[in-house]
Each structure stands twice: as structure tokens, then as C-alpha cells.
Amino acid sequence: MTDPRIGSLQQAVPALVLKTAADDLVHYGRDWTRRWAPAPLAIALPGDAGEVQAVVRWARAHGVAIVPSGGRTGLSGGAVAAHGELVLSLERMRRVLGFDAVDRTLTVQAGITLEATQSAAGEQGLAYPVDFAARGSCSIGGNIATNAGGIRVLRYGNTREWVAGLKLVTGHGDLLDLNRGLVKNSSGYDLRHLVIGSEGTLGVVVEATLRLADPPPETSVMLLALPSFESLMQVFAELRSRLELEAFEFFTARALHHVLAGGAQAPFAERHPFYVLAEFASGGDAREVAVLAAFEHCTTRGWVGDGVISQSRDQAAQLWRLREGITESLAPHAPYKHDVSVRVSAMPAFLADAQALLAREYPEFDVVWFGHVGDGNLHINVLRPAQMDADAFAARCGQVTALLAATLQKHGGSISAEHGIGLAKKDYLASTRSPEEIAIMAGIKRVLDPAGIMNPGKIFDAP
């Protein structure tokens, strides 16, 4: 029997597209975590900001919780609807709304994918430089909700740096136009930055004005094989001092093993414990000399055992596949994911402690490390043995996560670098935020979402 609330919503917003088929409820009710069984009330697909407002007002009046939904590529359970919530998907709101050549901004609806945004910027001879492997499916609204980082944070920073303005539908159903693309705006609190990283708990981002950059320079990619974990930061310091780095990525032999099992080509004849993939500005004799000098210095010091530099775009893409293919290659193993960060200067001490902790606590599990070492962000994936019950595995990993959170707290780090807190890391928020900070965040939520309908239970449990 159809829930009568669905008919009430359709009557309140006649043009709204609603989905209630069982397959749709599963598809839209979960994200990439796959840890929670989806159980949404229905899937609402508005076509514009006005319909989003109408849905939120209906939900507030009827006491129905809302889970905003973009590409659902999140890894912390932030887009999970497991308790009868209404999923509000923005996938019909994918239009480019305008380009301003003077301000060099692109205004888009929040459901547009990152890849489509990059293409639209490229058509104007410019670039939207935030980038990561899920570019074809993740949405700009989701990127803003988690302040997504990715593979080029070293040069361009996180999503936050590129949002000139945004429009938010609050838990009241009001539409706020935040910052309006201004470069300078010292007129009180910048609510735009409050929304970025809020994971849909304050409202629904429906539109964004994004700053664009010059097209990136011609680049080359270098893959280096490292004999030890300790040489990682030494190689980073050397390359950063000599090259114009666009990206600096790290992964282990276990990560490479899983990517190669998926059909990628092995980069070296021999296997090595650790690998670094660096992308850097190329072209010109001076840059070529600098690259060769950096490589020679690293090999002479024993920090690098082997290496290859791309000679074409196709070869560069093949090398990047070794890094960007990791997450997809691990997905069949239902990994428990850690997404952590520390200051770059604290990385060596944290790495030593974390490596010892995980080796001690996870001796029976396949643990895969990779990440954006240049900005202090590590991804640690613990793979579930095929014979192990999913609930028992999650419980075991949760025990170790508490220890890892304490280690991060010791080194002044964060339990979530770029994936958000969602449901998965909620129990460990206090390792990163003080009780006073959490209380202030809860107070802000009460102001913008007094009925508590916006993505409830994510980040923290509102009092």
C-alpha cells in the first residue's frame, strides 16, 4: 500500500517527479559505503529551486526528514536514507546557468557533475581545477557539502577556495543567496563558508557560482618506486623544492596489486614496497633539467629505487590509472575506510605511530594505504575477508578506529580529511572537535533547521 504522505507531497508539488519503485529506493537510498540498508520513504526529484523549497516546506509541515542526494559517491554514509527519510535528489538540476567572462565565474545548478562542470569551463578557455577520480558521477552540490579535495589540492586547494557564491534552501524552506560572487564582502558572517562542508545538515545547496582558473600548464607525470616508508617525505621535499608540482600521490604495493588485478599494466619489472606519482609542469630545457636533477638526487640518496617519466598523454593517463583505479579495485572487497589528515609537518611522526598501530591491531587483514601526502591526507582501507560476517567486520574495525582517532588527536589531526563525517565517523567527531565546537555546530543547525529535518543523524546527533 502506498504511503498516503506520498500522495500528499505530489499534491503539494504537482510538477515534482517522485519515484517509489523498490529498485529506486535502494539505488537512491545509499552511497558507496554499502554499510547501511537503504529504507527511504520515496525519492523526490525537483526540477528547480522553487520545487526544492516546496518540498522542504511540505517535509517540515509533515515531520518528514530529508536526505539531500547528489552523485552518492560519498564514503562516510552522509547520503544514506535508512530510516524512512525522503531522498531529495538533484539529478534533474544539472544545467549551466551562466558564465561571466569578466569575473571568470561559472554558475551551475547543484546536480551537475564535476566532469560536466570542467567541460563547461574548458569551453570558455578556462578550467575548474578541483578534480578526483569520481568526476563523472559526483555532483557539485555534493562536492560543496563535503568540501571535497581530491588529487590537486597541493596546487589548487579544496572546493572551498573555488566557491564564489551559492544558494541554499534552509530547513525553513527559505532560499538564501550567499555572497553573490563577490570577491570582497566584509558585511558580517560569511554564511557561504558555513554551508561548505556541512553535509546537507543545514539545508540543500541548489546553485553555485564557481571561480575558474587559467588552463593548467603542460604537465608530465613521474612514477617513482620507493624502498621504504621513511623516504616518502624526503622525496616530497625534494620534488617540491625543484619542480612546480600539480599533484603528489602515494600508494603501497598492496594498492598496486589490486589495480593490476583489474587489468592495469605493471609499471616496473620488479615490485617495490611503496610508490609515488607526481604530476608537474613541463616544457622547456630548464624544467627538463630540474626533473632529471631531482630524480638523480633521490636515487643517489637511496630514496628511490626506480622510476619512469611519461612521454605522452596516453602514458601519463596509464600512470594515473594506477592511482585513480585504487578505489574501484577495492570496492568488491567491501573495505572499511579511514580518511584522515594531519599537518604535513606532522606526517612522519603520525605515519610511524599509525603504521605500528594498524600492524598490531589488523594482523589478519589486508590493509591498503594511499593518499594525497602533499596535503597531509591519507586513505587507509581495511579489506573484509570473504568469509567474515559484515557486522562482525564493522565492529572489529570500529574498535580500531577509536584507537586511530586517539592517535590523530595526539598529532593534532582530523578523523575526516575530505569524505565528511556522515554516519561512519560520527562516534569519533570528538577526537577532532572540542565539546564547545560541537555545541556551537548544534546551535547553528537549530537556527537554520529548527525542525531537525535536514539530514538528521549525520555529523552529530542534534539535541
From TrEMBL:
FAD-binding PCMH-type domain sequence ranges: 36-215
Top-level lineage group: Bacteria
InterPro entries in the cross-refs: FAD-bd_oxidored_4_C, FAD-bd_PCMH, FAD-bd_PCMH-like_sf, FAD-bd_PCMH_sub2, FAD-linked_Oxase-like_C, FAD-oxidored/transferase_4, Oxid_FAD_bind_N, Vanillyl_alc_oxidase_C-sub2
Cofactor(s) required for function per UniProt: FAD
Sorted UniProt keywords: FAD, Flavoprotein, Oxidoreductase
Family designation: Belongs to the FAD-binding oxidoreductase/transferase type 4 family.
Protein name (database record): FAD-binding oxidoreductase
UniProt organism field: Luteimonas vadosa
